[in-house]
Design a protein that fits this description.
Blueprint lengths: L6 H7 L7 E5 L4 H13 L7 E8 L9 H12 L3 E5 L8 H16 L5 E3 L4 H13 L4 H4 L5 E4 L2 E4 L7 H10 L16 H16 L3 H30 L12 E3 H5 L3 H12 L12 H7 L8 E4 L2 E6 L2 E6 L10 E3 L6 E2 L5 E6 L6 E4 L6 E4 L3 E4 H8 L3 H4 L4 E4 L2 E5 L6 E2 L9 E6 L9
Parallel strand pairs: 1-2, 1-4, 2-3, 4-6
Antiparallel strand pairs: 5-6, 7-10, 8-9, 9-10, 11-14, 12-13, 13-20, 14-17, 15-16, 17-18, 18-19
Helix pairs in contact: 2-7, 5-8, 5-9, 9-11
Length: 443
């Protein structure tokens, strides 16, 4: 049996030795206890980042109330500070998934810029993950199972024991007389992973003794294949990531024509890669939404609804709108002091430069039928002016309109300010809008 503290283990840790801090996800179970002990002992002979442990208390069972105390005693004995975080697990169809989501949110809150969270998941966990996802019909990305490392918040997540078996961890714990807690829920076959672990894998290994190692190795091959697909996606996206016609708009977007030139499979691959940091990806049955959006008429404005937001098509470009984009109020807002910037609820900030028009000013949003005096062009329909500007349709309802009474005085737009000469000569003032989370203003 290979020793856990091997050259491969140290090699896995090597790229992260200069991180500001290492946080160890410490449940108190066998896996995390071994990882904590390994790293605490390694710190005695090696120069490592500052070590600390994080215990997430889900509050799902009475037995778990004793685990923070156990974890504290283990950490005290090893000289590693411990942080206990209590989380609320949302009710849902999958308790396993809800608990995992709450746990990883807590981890994200702990990990700072460049810091590393280390998790004790091992080779048996990898094999179970692969088989579980295979039974759910996952694609290559899902079957690549758990990566050795990935981004987490502004830091990184690392699984340094992924090449070690559960039997190796057990042997190490017994050799060093470690104590750990046993989660009663781990024996409940109603949970899918437990069913695989206790009912399926014993039968598999009875017939194929190397089943766990073989499945873990298959996950490595699939991870390599996913890496190649990611490289292809980056190449395909290069031509689609053309400069936006409205660079002030803080939303990801792509040119549609380069995507349409690809095969359907390459389109899906490129979009998965582009959407993966933005939303939970759809399963195979829901890609019909993409085809409907892609194949819509040029003057249509179709929408593809996804878990984290919406994909809009405007002309020959697609735009990603996160859920938060629609969270704004279209109620009128008075502007008592136009010399000071005005915060618009959920819609960024508005400011006025130059000599402000006299009288009470109010910000309203489009209702339809608005007209405005354009210097040199007379009274013009606002809808026609917006069509000329090429402004995406989903932005038009958020454009702040400056009113004095029932008189529309000004609108920030791509082509400059359209304003009347009400108490000001044209050009004496301008309206500037900085949309929510936007780094550049619109004037």
């Amino acid at each position: 049996m290979k020793p856990l503290l091997s050259a491969k283990f140290l090699q896995t840790l090597a790229p992260w030795r200069n991180a500001p801090a290492w946080h160890i996800a410490f449940s108190g179970g066998l896996d995390s206890t071994v990882l904590l002990h390994l790293l605490a002992n390694l710190a005695k002979t090696e120069t490592l980042p500052t070590l600390s442990a994080v215990h997430v208390h889900h509050g799902l069972q009475a037995a778990a109330d004793a685990w923070p105390g156990h974890c504290q005693s283990v950490c005290d004995a090893l000289g590693v500070p411990l942080r206990v975080m209590c989380v609320q697990v949302r009710a849902g169809a999958s308790l396993e998934r809800a608990a995992r989501d709450a746990r990883y949110q807590a981890f994200s809150d702990v990990v700072g810029a460049g810091e590393v969270l280390l998790i004790g998941q091992h080779r048996d966990d990898q094999a179970e993950t692969l088989l579980f996802r295979l039974l759910r019909g996952a694609g290559v990305q899902g079957l690549a199972a758990m990566p050795m490392q990935r981004a987490l918040a502004s830091g990184h997540l690392l699984r340094p024991l992924l090449g070690s078996s559960r039997a190796q961890l057990q042997a190490y714990a017994e050799e060093h007389q470690l104590t750990w807690v046993e989660d009663p829920s781990n024996a409940d076959p109603r949970f899918s992973r437990n069913y695989l672990r206790h009912r399926v894998f014993p039968r598999l290994t009875e017939r194929w003794p190397q089943a766990v190692a073989s499945l873990a190795r298959a996950a490595e091959h699939l991870s390599e294949a996913q890496g190649l697909l990611d490289e292809l996606a980056c190449l395909d996206l290069q031509t689609a990531e053309q400069p936006s016609p409205v660079p002030w708009l803080p939303l990801p977007s792509l040119a549609l024509a380069p995507l349409c030139a690809l095969s359907d499979a390459r389109q899906r691959n490129a979009l998965r890669h582009w959407l993966s940091p933005l939303t939970r990806l759809p399963d195979s049955d829901h890609w019909a939404g993409w085809y409907s959006l892609r194949d819509a008429r040029g003057d249509a404005q179709p929408v593809w609804h996804l878990a984290g937001g919406e994909l809009h098509r405007c002309g020959e470009r697609i735009w990603w709108l996160p859920v938060a984009w629609s969270d704004f109020s279209d109620a009128a807002v008075s502007w008592p002091d136009p010399q000071s910037p005005l915060a618009l609820p959920g819609n960024g900030q508005l400011r006025l430069s130059g000599r402000a028009p006299g009288g009470p000013l109010v910000i309203r949003y489009r209702q339809g039928g608005e007209v405005i005096d354009v210097p040199g062009r007379g009274r013009r329909d606002l809808k026609r002016l917006l069509n000329e500007s090429g402004l995406p349709g989903f932005v038009r309802g958020r454009l702040p309109l400056l009113y004095q009474g029932e008189q529309l005085l000004g609108v920030p737009s791509l082509t400059g300010l359209w304003n009347t000469a009400w108490n000001a000569a044209p050009g004496d003032w301008q309206l500037h809008w900085m949309p929510q989370t936007c780094d550049q203003g619109l004037s």
